Amino acid sequence: ERMLKNRERYASVWWQYAENRPGLNTALKSINEVIAMARVSAYWCPTIIFSNQVFSEALVVFPTSNQSTYALLQSHLYEFWMDQNCSSLGKTRRYSPSDCFSTFPFPRPGWEQLQLLNSLGEKYLALRKSICLERNIGLTKVYNLFHNEKLSNSETTDKQNPPFDDLYALRNLHKQINDAVLVAYQWQEIE
To answer: Whose CA, among 16, 64, 123, 154, lies 20 to 30 Å from 146?
Structure first.
């Protein structure tokens, strides 16, 4: 198939990945982890993964593992921005870094606020990972539960049995991230 494409690179180095990203590869050499997420997804769920792998074009990769950046990207404020700037089909979003990330007005929080966002990002990732492992489910099922308004400790579903204290704790951490992001923008008065 690649031989039929009209780009010379596809034919001349057919054994290599066709669309090499030298800028990304250079950035990845100095870090062990990156923030990554699916380009197309119903739920916004960035995560941190190891950088020493070949990434699919279906994955958006941010060459940083900064927990405060992660917390900001996980916030509802960023999700709202993304909804206004990315394309979608029904409830499924298609994330475009040039439309969503590059245009986002990042806050300039002080040291204490950066430390708080960093701590919250770490806690959120650890709890979410724990939920996946303990319930033996993936991120999609975690976020199906997370967004289920009828979630209660009396509910019973396959592999998603109550109690749901872990999911309530994840929701609470998400609220703390949202509050911390608002403070980073000095928008404490917004509810």
So the answer is: 64
Q: What is the mean pLDDT of residues 22-29?
A: 73
Identity of the amino acid at 130? S
- Give the Cα separation of 38 and 24 in Å (integer): 17
What pTM was estimated for this model as a whole?
A: 0.82
Half-sphere exposure of 158 (CA within 13 A, CB side): 0
Which of helix, strand or coil describes residue 133? helix
Cis ω on the peptide bond leading into residue 22 (within 30° of 0)? no
Give pLDDT tens digits for 66-78: 999 999 999 999 9
pLDDT (tens digit, 9 = 90+) per residue, 114-165? 999 999 999 999 999 999 999 999 999 999 999 988 876 655 454 556 788 9
Q: What is the C-alpha separation between 31 and 147, in angstroms, rounded?
A: 33
Mean of the per-residue pLDDT values for the chain? 85
Residue 24 DSSP SS3: helix
Residue that the structure tokens 């040039």 belong to: 98
DSSP per-residue codes, 66-127:
-HHHHHHHHSHHHHHHHHHHSEEETTEEE--HHHHTTT-------HHHHHHHHHHHHHHHHH
